[in-house]
């Protein structure tokens, strides 16, 4: 995860480099501050198995999910297949469509382990990475010597960029790799505030 934040006072108005005449010019152009919080990170880890919500799977080892059998694919290749794939349906796929059969279950390269008493593989993969950018614009308005007003506008998730966690990671349901909800981020919000500071 990389988390960066900062503010920048625009160099306009009284006591600044440009337009520093004071009066009306200062009230219009002075006292502006820009701010940002920017986060970028890798996706969350999740494990692939063959159960659906903890039931209806092949519990072939003492009643436990035995995992999967990987045919002609490595964990590295599986991780490389993680992404956000738009399909035209009201969901996205978080695994390459080549790993999904036409019925929506996992393709034969990811089969459920079904031999009694034999453990399959339970690989962990990381979901799609994501980023979020919040922006703020502040304007300071002097009222009296020790009193000032501050107008604040905040743009949370300014780019309105959706993020996705890994979808269904059980290889048996017909929704393998589907994600219908966004992940850590929320839709863009714009907030306005007015403060009096003294």
Explain what this protein looks like in three dimensions:
With about 200 residues, the protein is mainly beta. It has one domain. Helices cover about 5% and strands about 40% of the residues. The chain has 2 helices and 12 strands; from the N terminus they run E-H-E-E-E-H-E-E-E-E-E-E-E-E. Strands 1-2-9-10-12 form a 5-stranded antiparallel beta sheet, with no helix packed on it. It has a 3-stranded antiparallel beta sheet with strand order 5-6-11.
Span between termini: 38 Å
Binned strand content: 35-45%
Q: Describe the biggest sheet? A: 5 strands, antiparallel
Shape call = rod-shaped
Indicate the radius of gyration in whole angstroms. 26 Å
Helices and strands: which structural class? mainly beta
Strand order of the largest sheet: 1-2-9-10-12
- Low-pLDDT runs of 5+ residues are none
Number of strands: 12
Mean pLDDT: 84
Q: How much helical structure, as a percent, in the residues? A: under 10%
Please report the number of helical segments. Answer: 2
Concise account of the structure shown:
It is built from 2 helices and 12 strands, in the order βαβββαββββββββ. It is mostly beta strands and 198 residues long. It has one domain (2-197).
Question: How would you describe this structure in keywords?
Answer:
198 residues; mainly beta; five-stranded antiparallel beta sheet; three-stranded antiparallel beta sheet; 2 helices; rod-shaped
Map the helices and strands.
Blueprint: E1 2-9, H1 23-29, E2 32-41, E3 45-47, E4 68-70, H2 75-80, E5 82-86, E6 92-95, E7 110-112, E8 124-126, E9 130-144, E10 147-156, E11 178-179, E12 189-197
């Amino acid at each position: 995860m990389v988390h960066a934040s900062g503010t920048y006072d625009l160099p306009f108005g009284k006591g600044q480099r440009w337009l520093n005449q004071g009066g009306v010019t200062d009230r219009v152009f002075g006292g502006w501050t820009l701010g940002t919080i920017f986060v970028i990170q890798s996706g969350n880890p999740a494990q692939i198995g063959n159960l659906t919500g903890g039931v209806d799977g092949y519990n072939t080892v003492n009643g436990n999910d035995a995992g999967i059998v990987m045919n002609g694919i490595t964990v590295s290749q599986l991780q490389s297949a993680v992404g956000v794939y738009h399909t035209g349906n009201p969901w996205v796929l978080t695994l390459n469509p080549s790993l999904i059969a036409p019925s929506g279950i996992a393709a034969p390269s990811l089969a459920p382990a079904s031999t009694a008493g034999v453990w399959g593989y339970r690989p962990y993969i990381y979901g799609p990475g994501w980023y979020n950018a919040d922006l703020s614009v502040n304007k300071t308005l002097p009222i009296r010597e020790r009193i000032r007003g501050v107008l604040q506008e905040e743009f949370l998730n300014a780019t309105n960029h959706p993020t996705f966690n890994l979808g269904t990671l059980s290889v048996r349901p017909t929704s393998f790799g589907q994600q219908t909800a966004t992940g850590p981020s929320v839709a863009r919000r714009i907030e306005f505030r007015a403060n009096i500071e003294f």
